[in-house]
Amino acid sequence: MKSQEFIQFDGIGLAGLVRKKEVHPKELIEAAITRIEEVNPKLNAVVNKMYEKAINEASQNKCSGAFNGVPILLKDIQQEVAGELITSGSNAYKNYCATEDSEFVRRLREAGMIFLGHTNVPEFALMGITEPKASGPTRNPWNTDYTPGGSSGGSAAAVASGMVPIAGASDGGGSIRIPAAYTGLFGIKPTRGRTPVGPSYGRIWQGASVSHVLTRSVRDSAAILDEISSVEKTSAFTPLPFYGSYLEELSKPVSKLRVAFTVKSPLGRDVDPNCKEAVYQTAKLLESMGHMVEEKDAPVDGRKIGKSYITMYFGEVGATIASLQGNLGRKVTMKDVEPSTWMLGLLGQSVSASEFVLSMREWDEAAIAMERFHETYDIYLTPTTASPPAKIGELDLKPSEEKLIKAVSKFGMGKILKKTGIVDQLVEKSLSRTPYTQLANLTGQPAMSVPLWKTSSGLPLGVQMIAARGREDILYRLAGVLEQTGQWIDVKTNEVFAQ
Hints:
By secondary structure, this protein is of the alpha/beta class. It has helices at 3-6, 11-19, 25-43, 51-60, 103-110, 153-160, 177-183, 218-228, 246-249, 273-288, 302-328, 339-349, 353-373, 399-411, 414-419, 422-431, 438-443, 472-482, and strands at residues 46-49, 71-75, 114-119, 166-171, 186-189, 210-215, 258-261, 292-295, 379-383, 447-454, 460-466.
């Protein structure tokens, strides 16, 4: 199979060819490798390659399952393959190899998928862009001057350029939905606890982070969730049960939905007109389908949500840096991580236990408020992001900011820095471009980004739809219908894919 033929199929399509014995899994793997080698030099999406192991596995063809022989790339954090590098986007882990498969990887393997490598991530998956110092920036296939978003930016660029039809991703504050929005893909963050996090973890980011995939087709996403979702005994969270098949939901009619929408930033900041228009046009489309659509804000305080998210973020970065000592075998210094990571860690050390607990209570209060909200509305529609993709390097630290971080580090001024009001400033700076996605992470709700709009310059923009906890079925059913409309973006028309 030639790479140009390979890229025309989604994962289910490729699995069908294998099942009918029209192609051998080895042919799929070789076609995917050819495609990666063709376009990865332009995009820098794949940072760890497992070609030899993948070819050997495909040659044996001992796989079975719904995705038998289908190639997949994994995200370079928490999606471990035994014996393979997993760097988390940091030079501090540049020589670290996983000792066992993660549960997420194990379930994909049972589904018959074959792993080709890991995709680029920002250091410790902390940013909404993918520009780690360890391996350099990943570029957007629609325009390589721009970011594909993050933290699953490498996976997004890989799928949007045809390297693979499906790639592993995770979402702790929008890291599936943001890159999906920026690259014209479909991405859904499942309900908290729906997908596995073990065996090394019982929770990630206090339950805010959930693993899943980025795909070109809705049916691939739904079928993967069917394969990987089941109760994990060691997980800290158990979701509301779903006894059906997400893939089968796509063939069911969509009943009349009650949709609330907003274009206001939860932080009260400006929202790009393109992002607003994407929501307005989607609202009109839904209304034309017979759904009840009403402009209505969520019953939560956006600034409180932002601050509680950032508090967790600081604490988790502080814990990550502290845990590095075991890997390095010595005291961790500022030179071991990127300057912004170090600063976040210092702020994390200044967060008290009571502050952390109070921030977690905000999560629960928001979850309760949103459950009540969804007694009236089935879907909450917002922009996925408040801004189009940034240019590569646009969000780099300024020299003055790097000097400040060095001074803070040298004199141990984390607590003093916190008193200056920098936390509020960081909430504004970090979340102003992407203020919509964190809510679902904190409340545990499923949320998806759907590719229904482009900017005036031709870059994709997604719209976000949030449902009540446990109701991925509603989201998939609606996405399946929207995928058949003329508004759905055809990713095969992007700059790199079309070459």
